[in-house]
Amino acid sequence: MKNASPKSGDLSADIAAQIRDAIVAGDLRFDERLPSEAELSEQFDVSRPTVREALKRLAAQSLIRTQRGATGGAFVKRLSFEDAYPQQITTSTLLLSMNAVSFETACEARYALERACAPLSAARRTPDQLATMRAEIHRQSQPGLTDEAFCASDVAFHRALVDGAGNPVLSYQLAGAVEAMQPLMNMITFTARDRARIVALHVSVADAVEAHDGPAVAQALTDLEQETQSLAESVFAQRRKHPS
Amino acid sequence: MKNASPKSGDLSADIAAQIRDAIVAGDLRFDERLPSEAELSEQFDVSRPTVREALKRLAAQSLIRTQRGATGGAFVKRLSFEDAYPQQITTSTLLLSMNAVSFETACEARYALERACAPLSAARRTPDQLATMRAEIHRQSQPGLTDEAFCASDVAFHRALVDGAGNPVLSYQLAGAVEAMQPLMNMITFTARDRARIVALHVSVADAVEAHDGPAVAQALTDLEQETQSLAESVFAQRRKHPS
DNA sequence: CAGTCCTAATTGTCAGACATTAAAATGTAT
DNA sequence: ATACATTTTAATGTCTGACAATTAGGACTG
Known about the structure:
The structure is a homodimer. Chain A is mainly α. The termini of chain A are far apart. The longest helix of chain A has 28 residues, at about 215-240. In chain A, about 70% of the residues lie in helices and about 5% in strands. Chain A is elongated. At the A-B interface, helix 1, helix 3, helix 4, helix 5 and helix 8 of A face helix 1, helix 3, helix 4, helix 5 and helix 8 of B.
């Protein structure tokens, strides 16, 4: 908490960066209390509003939490997977929607990453996770389901598959890839026959997971990817012919 | 930009959330200008400092950029992969260091994800990316390299492999997994013989990539994972016997 | 027409005040 | 002495008003 001023012309950003670096470097450990806003203003020689803007930046990244009252203040927050999930999903979603990433590219990445989980999930899935997959398959088979509900169930199915690997780091990384696809998937309207094919492939995945057969899971995911890609292609082709 | 107030007791967080939702939902498109701080204070019926704290939160997530001057203001920012990279890396690093994630778990996730890139990278890698991999291998073979420099080169090697897949979404997701491992890898001191084994495996990877042989790349990565895991195990075992 | 100056709009920063909260210290009654 | 109510205090949350810095665009001038 000294000098080393980047002096980029934005005081609150500089201060936030300095404190963030101290946290990442381990100089500030979690649950450790930062100096009060008044003390920080003195140390950095800026006004309290400026310090507050810096602290809000850190709070937005879940790096600190604040508490009011006599023993209150800003505390280094233990960054939990729970907190990181929504951020990861928001960022991934915006990356896809703002950078003209093609459906093809996003889909390829998603299934490549999921296949990475296949052998682990086949080996370790709990009965609970398998039951979740079966339950989502059942939901997807219900007629009269809206396209959105179908997609949401699809996401839940795939998340159960990923969580089956029993590796929180994998689950975290995959959350972004899987959830961020949902807006893209929602652009597709599924016919009854489309759904039947997808559900059948989901059954293949679940069966392979149940049999602890990693390669079969990977193969089923590859088939599912191909089905999804060709489905999207035909939808986009039709949309080019009859633009709304 | 009106009601739907979550009223969580934190005005700037609520306002930030409302604007963020509008951006994610697509109501505000990129490069679109937000109302001025004065106008926002009126619309949300709060003071300007409070609005500013909300805007700083959004800026911390790279959702907006601000410009001074007559035609200035806050603009919705096109979230670029470039901006998202460091955030992803910071978050992943903190998740590992603050949640007692074992070396084993992190390493497993990393190599599982890298194997997902193997077939794509084998098929598509450019000569440039292959050259980068060879160059890093050469650097790693230099005697007298510090452990940190060795690890940094290791990261560069693996990033070239991942980038070889030619899928920006994959590169983005993997950046977190690969870079966040570096602090953990730095805890290991490599003997000359350790390095030689790792470099030999890197050569296997590069050879397989050069030969466009996806399965061989995956196999080499699996070998590399096993080597890394057993190396870490022996280091930690020794540390338990002779704690510093 | 070109260059310069001025103006206006907007963000960046500061100072000081008051409101709100929650823990700790103090006081009081049993 | 202990249990409970009250006061104090230290901190964040918010507001008001002001000034500085920056930048685009218009007005003025040669």
